[in-house]
Amino acid sequence: MTKVLSVASECAPLVKTGGLADVAGALPAALAPLGVEMRTLLPGYPAVMSALGAGHVVASFDCFGGSARLLSGMAAGLDLFVLDAPHLFDRDAGIYLNADGQDWPDNPERFAAMCRVAADIAGGTLGEWAPDLVHCHDWQAGLVPYYLKRDAVPVPSVLTIHNIAFQGLVPMDRAGALGIAIADLNRDGVEYWGQISALKAGLIRADHLTTVSPTYARELMTAEFGMGLDGVLRARRADLSGILNGIDLDVWSPSADAHVRPYKTPRGKVANKVALREEFGLPGAEGPLCVVVSRLTEQKGLDLLLEALPALLDRGGQLALLGSGDPGLEAAFANYDHPNVAARIGYDEALSHRMMAGGDAILVPSRFEPCGLTQLYGLQYGTLPVVALTGGLADTVIPATPATMAKEVATGLQFHPITADALSNALAQLCDLFERPKMWSKMQRNAMAHPVGWAPSAAAYAALYADLTKAAG
Questions:
Q1: pLDDT 10s digits, 43-98
Q2: Residue 112: how many CA atoms within 13 Å on its side-chain side?
Q3: Which fold has domain 2-246+455-472?
Q4: Pick the CATH number of 266-449 from 3.40.50.300, 3.90.226.10, 3.40.50.2000, 3.20.20.70
């Protein structure tokens, strides 16, 4: 049995802002059959503390001017360590942002505290349980590998990059408080354009780096996608792997989904489509009903969709959108003046399931996408993905081309370059395919048969853990 400490700032279903939480929440159960005992260290946000209940106090710390307890317990089927530090985590607004939508000023200290505790656990502070390996997620856990190497703790670490756009930048004058050595405040260390990057600290000190798709791993080593860290990643090319995310098939299964009218074949989508149109106030239409479930940001390409929408609407297509984010994009979709466009601003988990079940196609026009989960949900529900050719979108959707159509293996559409014109062409192609019912149904069946669960990825992580623990040996 390999013991792994997973260190994450969020974890579904307890607390979630994005795909990182889904991965952190799904990996423990996916890895258990493979001989991996994973415990997850989380900050003690109110939602986490409520789910954990009393817990069991296993250690006490002083964390940046306040006392903290490390609790052990179970919640939502997860074996947890929770850092109960009310002065850092007991806040009413978001886990990263305050009520004004700005980063909490003490975010560097908040997540450094989590990292410090993780390194202490790896160093044996608990006595009865110590990991063979530490798996760190994104910049919030980036200082864990740094502390492990600084303190000569002989436990290997893996750092997974979920989105390199978020780097955990910290002013240089906080280095001492964060326990970062002056000798590391340079280009070859943790310095990034005059600041400290918590993510870079992890990139240069972790024993192995992973990201959430093979294509994104290659993209990160280019100036276009590497966000200024492409040189660091090229230098560590031999230690960088791309392992696709999966989805939780116990939660996302059209045949057993409590939020929808269950179905096992594409024909079962019809009742869900009728219900979804009614829910969004959309009329009947001849074209495909497209859905979007997304943060409304330029990264997600939603501004491109606004430009390209006429290519869908002019063919009798429809759009139902659920999301929030940029105020301008929220207003543009909410006020779009067309009877075949409807938007809900915000997030509703149950509604997102109904949209996957009722939609004909899911649109994911992201400018960059490390892995993406919505296209995987779409595949599972027979809702054909229309995706940009980037990151995990390129790795998970078999595009409708003459070759794939001849072999009847296509599961969706891809477009490139990532422009409004290319997206318009993809939407026109979607409408063409929708007018060919036999081909459309075949693509839906292909999509629903496409493997999207965690089994292959869990095996890849387990093999990586085994290699690293053996080498540390």
A1: 999 999 999 998 999 999 999 989 999 999 999 999 999 999 999 999 998 999 99
A2: 24
A3: Rossmann fold (3.40.50)
A4: 3.40.50.2000
